[in-house]
Amino acid sequence: DTLSADRFCKARELVTSLVNEEKCFATENGAIAFGDACAIDVVYEDCFEPKSFVGRKAVTDHMKAKVDERKGKGDVRIDKISDGNIACGYAWTWVSGDGKEEGLRGTTFVQLNDS
Questions:
Q1: CB under 8 Å to 9, separation ≥6 — which residues?
Q2: Cα distance between residue 52 and residue 7, in whole Å
Q3: β 102-111/53-54 pair status
Q4: First CA to last CA distance, the chain
Q5: Cα(42)–Cα(94) distance, rounded to whole angstroms?
Q6: Do 92 and 26 touch, CB atoms closer than 8 A?
Q7: Distances (CA, A) of 64 to 8, 15, 18, 29
Q8: What does the alpha-carbon distance between residue 26 and residue 31 come to, in Å, rounded to a whole number?
Q9: Residue 103: what are its φ and ψ, rounded to 5°?
């Protein structure tokens, strides 16, 4: 059974929407949309942070603080993304606001709950 490139994949579509359309890493409204997409009891782990963020409010506050730190400095570009429905992973690059410089690179794994 071959996976169709145009098959709807809930996790992939949500991540793509939050990063590319909502600009969750670059705008306050995007950060809020990111938090709104999370479960009440979400656990957000970031290797650059000393501890996990637990709960929708903590994640939203963290995302808004990160956006505030980076305001006008660029955004995340998705380089590759898997086709998951329940979970997906993506490789990303931080790109300057003018698009001429690339910086930090990373990978992120997202897993949706049942609802």
A1: 83, 84, 85, 88
A2: 33
A3: unpaired
A4: 27
A5: 24
A6: no
A7: 29, 17, 14, 9
A8: 8
A9: -130, -125
Give pLDDT tens digits for 15-69: 999 999 999 999 999 999 999 999 999 999 998 899 999 999 999 999 999 999 9
Total residues found in the chain within this entry = 115
Closest CA to 75 of 30, 44, 37: 30
Our measurement of the distance from residue 103's CA atom to the centroid of its chain's CA atoms, rounded to an integer in Å, reads 17
- Residue 89 class from Cβ within 10 Å (0-12 exposed, 13-18 middle, 19+ buried)? middle
Residue for token pair 């290797």? 47
Cα separation, 74 vs 10, in Å, equals 27
